[in-house]
Design a protein that fits this description.
α5 links the parallel β3 and β4. By secondary structure, the protein is α/β, with parallel strands linked by helices. It folds into 3 domains: about 80 residues, Winged helix-like DNA-binding domain superfamily/Winged helix DNA-binding domain (Arc Repressor Mutant, subunit A, Orthogonal Bundle); about 100 residues, Periplasmic binding protein-like II (D-Maltodextrin-Binding Protein, domain 2, 3-Layer(aba) Sandwich); about 100 residues, D-Maltodextrin-Binding Protein, domain 2 (3-Layer(aba) Sandwich), CATH 3.40.190. The strands form 4 sheets. Strands 3, 4, 5, 6, 11, 12 and 13 form a 7-stranded mixed sheet that branches. It has a two-stranded antiparallel ribbon with strand order 1-2. The chain is about 40% helix and about 25% strand. The chain has 10 helices and 13 strands.
């Protein structure tokens, strides 16, 4: 078997964390992958992977080889992508990473049309709450919210989303409507257990900035749960407009404290630096820009 295939199987096994997961991706049986990697280790004279019944872990030599494999496989892909002007239609697997909220409320709604335009692409959507290493995870493009801090990535701004404080009509009927930020301390505000910053609500007005460390009797580790619980009347929530704009338009939620300025979230599509932008990434960037810029659907 050629060295390129060996590298691909090795890298995929490491990224997926198991032979069975790598096999599903590569259409190979776990036993075939195990035998191939054993031959690779025998040829190199170095153990690359420590195997247990439940997990795989890299040896020191395996870590070094994995890093070089990723670089070489990326170079091969870039070489092929440099010829995209001669190819009518992008093909292959397009791996996208996104937060759950943006994927559910915005991304999924536009991806069906994208697949109709490019039927030879296979989409793999990864949902994570934390930023992942795009190269290590084999991600082609990710949606990132907030300021970009990773200088190894190229970012294209797709838009901005205001954060809105809102509650359901039934909650407001039962508990009343806050008229200034400090009133929130007398209300049940819905909080996130995984981020203290999420529960620090910033406001500004002509009188200056104001910070409220909100409190309440409901906390979760999932933003989508906060959204749904607010719609059910569970309390006051602060979420991005891309999540709640439709609920506000339909009357399921009502915006609060609209005389105050609340910070906006920047939304970026990011991808690793490459000499040649793969055709599949280029067409997705163009499509997302078409759908979300310059005026996003939630504005």
């Amino acid at each position: 078997m050629d060295k390129w295939t060996e590298m691909q199987v090795f890298a995929e096994s490491v990224k997926r964390g198991s032979f069975s997961a790598a096999g599903r991706q590569l259409n190979l049986s776990p036993s075939a992958i195990s035998k191939l990697l054993s031959r690779l280790e025998s040829r190199l004279g170095v153990r690359l992977i420590n195997r247990t019944t439940r997990s795989l872990s890299l040896t020191e030599g395996g870590e070094r080889y994995f890093k070089r494999c990723l670089e070489i496989l990326t170079d091969i892909e870039s070489a092929e992508d440099s010829l995209t002007s001669f190819v009518r239609e992008p093909t292959g697997t397009l791996r996208i990473n996104s937060t759950q909220g943006f994927a559910k409320h915005q991304l999924l709604e536009v991806m069906a049309e994208f697949q109709e335009r490019y039927p030879r692409l296979t989409l793999e959507l990864q949902i994570t709450g934390q930023a992942v290493d795009l190269i290590d995870e084999g991600v082609d493009l990710a949606i990132r919210l907030g300021e970009l801090r990773d200088t190894s990535l190229v970012g294209r701004k797709l838009g901005e989303s205001r954060r809105l404080v809102c509650a359901s009509p039934q909650y407001l009927k039962a508990r009343g409507r806050p008229t200034r930020p400090s009133d929130l301390l007398d209300h049940d505000c819905l909080r996130l257990s995984t981020s203290d910053l999420f529960n620090q609500w910033h406001f500004s007005s002509a009188t200056g900035p104001e910070l409220v460390n909100v409190q309440g009797h409901f906390v979760t580790d999932n933003v989508d749960v906060l959204h749904e619980y607010a719609r059910l009347g569970g309390g006051i929530v602060r979420l991005s407009a891309f999540m709640v704009a439709k609920d506000i338009a339909a009357g399921r939620l009502e915006p609060l404290l609209t005389d105050y300025h609340i910070e906006r979230q920047l939304i970026y599509a990011v991808y690793p630096h490459r000499r040649h932008l793969p055709a599949k990434v280029r067409v997705l960037l163009e499509y997302l820009t078409e759908k979300f810029s310059p005026k996003p659907p939630w504005s």
